[in-house]
Structures are given as structure tokens and as C-alpha cells.
Amino acid sequence: MNVLVLGSGGREHALVYKLRESQHTQEIFCAPGNAGIAAEAECFPADLTRPAEVLALAERLDAGLTVVGPEAPLAAGVVDEFQKAGRAIIGPTRAAARLETSKVFAKQFMQRHNIPSARFAVAESFDQACQALRSFSLPVVIKADGLAAGKGVVVARTREEAENALDGFLRRQVLGVAGKQVVIEEFLIGWEMSFILLVDVRGGILPFPPAQDHKALFDGDLGPNTGGMGAYSDDALISPSLHQEILSRIVRPTLEGMEFEGSPYHGFLYCGLMLASDGPKVLEYNVRLGDPETQPTLMRLRSDAVEILSASLEGNLASVEGRWSPNPAVCVALASKGYPGVPDIGKVIEGCEAAESQGGVKLFHAGTVFRDGKLLTAGGRVLGVTAIAPDLESAIARAYVAVKMVHFEGMHYRKDIGAKGLRRSNPALERMPPGLLPGTTPTSS
Ligand code: AMP
Ligand code: GLY
Question: Whole-model pTM?
């Protein structure tokens, strides 16, 4: 069959890379794609927030399977449009996508269904918010309700910082309608991890191996939040018992709750978790694959990607066993000067071929464009240098050898991707939450 991937980042490049390996894929397309994707799939321009336009493209390309990468098309109702037309697509409906598009909805949903999460209050005016703030100790987390491209969450260390954030969202409306309501949330302490799974049309699931993102800009998790400066996927991130606890206390109640409320969930579900000393808690839901987490995770996929996705459309995931390499994988994001603010783009990128000629290394493109015979930077996150190796330490080393071969003006990256995973084996880290013991998730083989 023909397969269409929607999006233009590293996540979508990783999807294209795996989908084109499938024995069931005839032709592979991407909209809008990037320079790296264009080398592996035919790319088409498209406004992904216009469902009718996207459906027309899928019809023209005779796409038997469409996979949605980012949240914007889901929020715009692309899946609803495809479903009305009877065309196969992977992703939740607009109503189900509220788990990500509205933080107020997500928090109240978790409360209704007893899903562990941070204590919270919702406010619609500055005065109401300041009143609510008094019942929280510091630090405190302030979140804008709507989609804000990573700019909607502030971890405030002082009351002044918290009030500034509230003033920005609710009075100065710096995020427009996305900040019309806010969530004020208790600050959780623990280990953050990304638990991603595929949900079929009957609620069957296929959990992916665990991954950990590195959201902060600088080494040591310092500096402002970004879309993610790198990630690794390693079975040792969670023990089998913690894996089961996440399924029973978080995943199952989430899917049953959505079904009960009339918005059954289908597609990729990303539970952003804090592994706290009293158990896993949901920080956020995303209704899609994570980026960069998808890059190292899919590097480990051994199953046929089309077979898995088709099983999810047939409600048949329970009978599918995901096959994953036991080897960990690491992805280091190379970013443009200025990122996560306005990036300085149009810089010549050199060294990709040499980097990719290293065994076990793949460069997933994000903000790249091919112009006048040159590969140029075209966005904040430019490349995801991804490596797989028999152990985490070797995967990290392999990724950074490849990173050093790539160059563009203003390039910056974190030097400590995966280091947290390595520290796990260090006895000095005994304060880690229980459950974070080396082990293998039942999904892996
Ligand atoms: P979110 O978009 O809700 O995941 O928030 C972005 C980031 O802010 C998360 O990845 C965490 O690093 C941090 N964060 C969000 N909520 C909390 C919380 N309740 N406690 C501690 N950190 C948080
Ligand atoms: N890596 C975080 C996200 O995809 O939202």
C-alpha cells in the first residue's frame, strides 16, 4: 500500500525511515517533510491544519495508511475528516486530542478517573489565580491551558515569578487564547520519563520501550525548556513491576475513562510521567509520538511498522508482539543559534555523510532544506544524531563521535544526553525512586 506521513521533524523522518523498510509499503510520501525526508520519500507541501486539504492529498496519492506526526493536525480534526471519508489514519479524534490540547481538560479528567497526578487548581482571572496560588508551596508550576509550542509551562521558584507568569498568561495574554485559563500545579520531585504506546480502535495496546527526554537547553537540566535537546531509549529505565504499575494505574484508567466519556482513544499516546517516591504520576499527556523520543525508540524497532499500524486499525494489537532490539539508542539534537528562541537559519550543514557512515548511526533531519545544491539549516532543531549500540555507554559514545563530524555555524547541543541513565549504575544515586532498577520491560525481546 501507499503510506503518507504528516509532519516535518525528526520524529517524522524516523517514521518514514521505518515505514519504508516495511514489506507492505509500495510508495512512501510525506507532507511537508524536510531535506532528509525528501531523500527517502516524495514530499508535498500542505497546510496540515486544513483537514480537507490533507484528505484531498491522501486521496490523490491513494494513501492506504496515513500517520500523523505533530499535534496541530490532530487538534484541527484531520482524523475526524479521514474517518468521515472512510480513509485509514492513525491518530485520535479532535475530541480525544483534548488530552493534550487542553491542560484543564486533562487535569480534570485525571481527577475524575483517579489517575495519579499533581494537585492542582484552575483559574480564569489574575485575582482568582493569585488567591489559588496561596494554597501551594514553592516551587510551583504554572501552565497555560492550550497548545503553546513549549512556552506554556513555567516552573516558578518565587511568588514573584509565579505572579509574573500569571500576569503574562491571564492579563497581558502573551499566549492569546491558549492562556485564557491556567492550571496551577504542585511541583513534583522525581525522575521524568516518557511512556509511549500505540492504542488500537478497540482499546488494545502496544507499549513502546521506555524513553527519557532532555527538555532543558543546557547540560545538567539547566536553562529554559525546549522541545527536547535529546533522548535515549533503554529498557533499564523502568523495572517490569513499574511497567505493570504504569499500565494498571495510568494507561488503563486513561483509556477506560476516555471510552466512558464518549471519546474512545486511538493512536499514539504519550504519558509524560514523573516517577516520584510514592509512585508514577502524570505530568502531561501528548496525543502523538514524542520528538525526539521517537528517534532513538524507532531505531530499536525490529517489527514491520506497517503490520503494527494496520493491526491498530483492525483492533488487533493484543495479538501483536512488538519486537525491539535489546540495545539502547541515543539521540542528540543539534540546534541552531537562537533556539529555543528565534533561530538563525540558512547556514550550510557539513559532515552528514561522514557521520552517517559510522556503523549504527542515523541522522534524522528536522529543520533542514536543500537549496542550490547545498544542505542548509531551516529551523531551531536541525538534526537528531541517533546511535544504537549494545550498551548505553557505547551508544552515547557512538552518537557523540558522529556529532563531532557535523558542523554548521552557530550549532549547539547538550553534551550530557544519556548521562542520567548511566548514573543509575552509580551507587551514589541511592536516592532514586524505587522501581528505577535495571531490568527489561515485558514488551522487549
Ligand atoms: P508539560 O508540558 O506539562 O509536560 O511541562 C513541561 C515540563 O515542565 C515537564 O516536562 C517537566 O519537566 C516540567 N513540569 C511540568 N509539570 C511539573 C510538575 N507538576 N512538577 C515538576 N515539574 C513539572
Ligand atoms: N519530547 C517532548 C514532546 O514531544 O512533547
Answer: 0.94
